[in-house]
């Protein structure tokens, strides 16, 4: 049978079935989708591939899914460090955005982020930022998959003047991207402390009408809870429930300030949670109780947050940190097992974005969003358990190849869709302007 691509790998981690590794296995790709997965000696007899890619010293696995980013903020990487969230936002980031925010800023920053993510094995990301059309354009140019947040806040910016303007412009972006094979949209109210009741109620209604998810920072820091209690006499989750947002459409990001009844409430509502361990640690925001969330049956994904608060978009780092943090917080060494953490960074992320029928695991009929990790080096040997190796030992420099819908995006560590030298110069130009 004629096929487009046959990838032969020493080890394949399909994610589904869970906690399994297939050795000397081939993934068969036709029209951008996975047609078959079988032992390589059988594949060689059954299929005639236009292109064959041999990964003799590699792990082949699904592309990583970064379920929470602010991609354009790559241009603020390292500008303001070592301070709590509200000081970081109010004293540094928001003033910077008032001065520099523009469509060019967002497009250039998002391109830089896409290059970083792809080189680190991330094939899909969820974004929340101003000028979402520019982030979508950058993602499409880079060849990666993205779910773009239609941001909403109450205050004016260079992008929109008020809550109604944000929603109107967001709906225009949604219409422009309708039918795009790589780019989806979601509503993205920034947070309970920056979006008032009426816009949130409107978003809840529109999300139902358009069948979109709602991506929001929630219970990120203790001060957020206190502000909500003072202003609304409700904790933020209670307020969202009252406004009709606590549904399976809700993607709650951070969730470091949770009580037991709130975990139960989110589990009953079918809410997904995005855990951003390194950003939360750096901003001293608190700890997301991922073990308790998983035990309650809540879908938990992983995100990096922005390079301004992390300071990278490295999902390998997030996996390792998430695994170790879960063990430390729960005082349970068996919590946060490698296979579960890997699932958070792949299939759970896809489920969060409503894409689990299409990506997140190596299964027949899913898109061939795949990455190859080289493991035949001194830092990776010996190798006993490839899944453990990915979570605890591997790093993004080991990613050699990336495919999105069967299309090669990175080949032998070379990014094929973007000019790295040009991006580097663009970043330097912005650095010079911002620091002057």
Structure, described:
- It is built from 16 helices and 16 strands.
- With 436 residues, it is α/β, with parallel strands linked by helices.
- Strand 7 (145-152), helix 5 (163-177) and strand 8 form a beta-alpha-beta unit.
- The mean pLDDT is 97.
Number of helices: 16
The secondary-structure class comes to alpha/beta
The major β-sheet equals:
8 strands, mixed
Distance between the termini: 61 Å
- Assign an overall shape: globular
> Which range best describes the helical content: under 10%, 10-25%, 25-40%, 40-55%, 55-70% or over 70%?
25-40%
Provide the low-confidence segments as ranges: none
What descriptive keywords fit this protein?
eight-stranded mixed beta sheet, alpha/beta, four-stranded parallel beta sheet, 436 residues, globular
What's the layout of helices and strands?
Layout lengths: L1 E11 L9 E9 L2 E7 H7 L1 E15 L1 E6 L15 H16 L2 H17 L2 E8 L2 H11 L2 E8 L10 H15 L5 E7 L7 H14 L3 E5 L3 H11 L3 H8 L6 E5 L5 H10 L2 E4 L1 H6 L7 H6 L3 E4 L12 H16 L7 H7 L2 H6 L17 E5 L11 H7 L6 E6 L2 E5 L2 E2 L4 H16 L1
Parallel strand pairs: 1-4, 5-6, 6-7, 7-8, 9-10, 10-11, 11-12
Antiparallel strand pairs: 1-2, 2-3, 4-13, 13-14, 14-15, 15-16
Helix pairs in contact: 3-4, 3-16, 12-13, 13-15
Give me a quick take on this structure.
By secondary structure, this protein is α/β, with parallel strands linked by helices. Helices cover 40% and strands 25% of the residues. A hairpin with a 2-residue loop joins strand 14 and strand 15.
